[in-house]
Write a structure and sequence with these properties.
This protein is α+β, with helices and mostly antiparallel strands. It is built from ten helices and 16 strands. The radius of gyration is 25 Å and the shape is globular.
């Protein structure tokens, strides 16, 4: 994940491709590092420890002998990577999820910020291999990268080196969110975000449409099922193919979710809006199994996660509201409808509204009543039914270009 919150610091991993092939000394370092990580994992499993410090204590001396050619700080960093793999492994076991013994397959290494130098002007990394041996990695720097390199409020964190690219972690203090001048309240659905934008006395409908996310998932689900059937006699092949399918699906969906989030945040940033979302954590599972499979999949939570961390980075306030009854409550008279609603919410008092918009109005009203949306007011009567602002639609995907930020940091 590109951004993690750690001690009030935000961290964003930015991917840089290398201008030339990785020097052979660095390639050897990656191999050595991977070996050290996998050895440390084995030591950790045997000794039942998962922290970097415990691993250092137990194994540093031996490892120093075995990996003589490695810079000491990189060795400590290998313990760190092994430690996090061990922690994930232990967490999965505790949760009752089958977890195979962790093993780092891909060539990688991680250097802590004091174990490398990056010249932010020229985009050249000085990476020590061992005493007296350093290599230079020249990065490909685009306009997008410049924004991070030139922003001196960002400090440098760890460096992850892969055979063809590096990931530099940029860190900054959590910015104070701005005081909102408007609000963007969004109901999160399987194929769209639907909601309202309120500014002054005016309220308009907004929409971000992402039907492909559900389509991609459905297609891959079907294909997986077919694969499982076809390769039923060969469980290993079947599993490998399914995993490959899963990774592909994952990337495509995640890429689209980033685009949707970017459009929402751009809108909110330009208009100084607070973003109001439902808190999805308490969602009860639905009974229908098929529906549940599609609904409970992670895209909606993932979309919220992306919106939240990007908003935090930019200082845009995000408010999370318990969605209970939000789709069944009448925002004008407060009645709760117990019968199942169709596409439109209708109330005895005469109020009727698109079901999703109605939910977003309720989210907004809850946020306002709890004083979580600044000094904003909202009158359902001010809603302009004839206006629809499009935040995102599938056609916009064709126009935008990947910017190289979707790199995944970590161990696979
Ligand atoms: Zn009513």
């Amino acid at each position: 994940m590109p951004v993690v919150v750690k001690e009030e610091m935000l961290v964003k991993g930015v991917v840089f491709y290398l201008a030339s092939d990785l020097p052979s000394e660095a390639k050897l370092l990656l191999e050595d590092f991977r070996l050290a990580v996998n050895n440390a994992i084995r030591v950790g499993l045997q000794a039942r420890v998962t922290s970097r410090n415990a691993l250092v204590k137990i194994a540093y001396k031996d490892f120093r002998e075995q990996h003589r050619r490695m810079y000491a700080q990189h060795l400590v960093s290998a313990f760190e990577v092994a430690g996090s793999a061990l922690k994930n492994h232990r967490r999965r076991i505790r949760k009752g999820v089958t977890s195979r013994i962790p093993f780092v397959k891909r060539l990688m290494m991680k250097a802590e910020n004091q174990a490398y130098k990056l010249d932010r002007k020229s985009g050249v990394i000085d990476l020590p291999i061992r005493a007296g041996c350093h290599v230079e990695l020249r990065l490909v720097v685009s306009q997008y990268h410049r924004e991070y390199l030139d922003d001196m409020s960002l400090s440098l964190g760890s460096l992850t080196v892969l055979p063809d690219r590096v990931i530099v972690a940029f860190r900054k203090d959590v910015p104070k969110p701005f005081a909102p001048e408007s609000a963007l309240s969004l109901d999160t659905n399987e194929r769209s975000l639907d909601g309202i934008f309120v500014e002054g006395d005016v309220a308009k409908a907004v929409k971000a449409d992402f039907p492909e996310v559900a389509i991609i998932q459905q297609r891959h689900h079907d294909r997986r099922k077919r694969l499982q059937k076809k390769k039923a006699h060969d469980r290993r092949t079947s599993r490998t193919l399914c995993r490959r399918e899963g990774a592909r699906e994952h990337h495509r969906v995640e890429y689209r979710l980033h685009q949707v989030a970017n459009s929402v945040l751009k809108f909110a940033e330009e208009r100084k809006s607070a973003i109001i979302l439902e808190d999805l954590r308490g969602m009860r599972p639905k009974r229908n199994k098929e529906l549940n499979r599609r609904l409970s999949k992670w895209p909606r939570r993932k979309l919220h996660q992306i919106i939240e961390y990007k908003a935090q980075w930019k200082g845009i306030p995000v408010v999370k509201i318990d969605p209970r009854n939000s789709s069944r409550t009448c925002p004008t008279c407060g009645r709760i409808q117990h019968s199942r609603m169709g596409a439109e919410f209708a109330c005895e008092c005469g109020w009727h509204m698109d079901r999703h918009l109605n939910a977003s109005i309720n989210l907004l009203q809850t946020a306002i009543s709890k004083g979580m949306a600044g000094g904003l007011r909202f009158d359902p009567g001010a809603f302009q039914h004839d206006v629809m602002m499009i935040l995102y639609e599938p056609a916009m995907a064709a126009r935008s270009e990947p910017n190289g930020t979707s790199g995944v940091v970590g161990v696979t």
